[in-house]
Amino acid sequence: MLFGKEHVERYRATDGAEGHEWQGTTALILTTTGRRTGERRDAPLIYQRHGDDYLVVASNGGADAPPTWYLNLRADPEVEVQVLGDRFRARARTATPEEKPELWPIMTAAWPAYDEYQTKTDREIPVVVLERLPS
Question: What is the pTM of this model?
Answer without folding.
Answer: 0.95
